[in-house]
Structures are given as structure tokens and as C-alpha cells.
Design goal:
It is a single chain. By secondary structure, the chain is mainly α. It has one domain. The chain is built from five helices and no strands. It starts with a helix and ends with a helix.
Length: 159
Amino acid sequence: MSVARGLLLAGGIALALWGMGYGLWYAAFAEHQALEEIGASLSTAFSSAAQREAAQSGVALLRYKESKYIYDRRVDVHSHWIGLAMVLIVLGLCFEKVSFSERTKLWLAIGLLIGACVFPLGVLFQVYDHGPLPRILAISGSALEIGSLCFIALGLARS
């Protein structure tokens, strides 16, 4: 087994375990509170609107927007880590068919693994920082992932 293939398989399995562990932690300790906040803010917004209290309804809708934003990011991170892990594992199984030198394949495997880790981390950091840095991190990770996948597709097409 080549080093690049081993890196993809081991990295994919590790990333899948990490994503499932994060999902388990989130489901057990944080998701219920997030869903409670989402439901409570919507309930407050609708009841305030029914009572013609526009200001209070607006505040509750903003609270809903922020709660839903955080919830979506955390669920996305869990699913992206696991989904990208599956891509790494599947590519690892057929990586010997990529028609590039071993060195090039190793760099592509490293790019895939880094992209698969960094992209979801950038999404997760958006929960804590709404500035440009987490978005840059997420975009960079996804660009690295897409670029590596394009070169691997080219390598598969050449074989």
C-alpha cells in the first residue's frame, strides 16, 4: 500500500470517528438546548406579534435567527466531517488508479486531508466569530478540497 493511499484511508477513518464523536457530543449535550432556544424564540415572536408588540417580536426573531445560525453551523460541521471522511476512504480504495507519480499523489492526499479538516473547522468557527477569518478558513479548506479533487479526477481520466 502506498503512503498516499494509507494516509487517505487512515485520515478518512480518523475524520469519520471525529465527526461521529462530535455529533454524539452535540446530540447528547447541546442540541436539545439549541432546539429549545429556537422553539422558545419563535413562540415568543409569534405571540408578541399576535399581541401587536412589534419591538418584542423583532427581538425574538433576531434571537431565533442567531440560534438557528448556530444550530445550522454545528449540524453542518458534523455532516461535513463525516461526508468528507467517506470521500477520503472511497478515494483511498481506488487511489492506485490515479495516474500521477507517488510524490504528486502524496501531495494530493495531503491536500484532501487538510481540506477535509479545515473546511468544517472554518464553518464551526463562524459560530464564535462572525468576522472574515472563519469564512476565509472555510473557503480555503473547500478550495483545497475542490482543487485536489479536480487533479485526482484528471489523474483518473489519464489512467
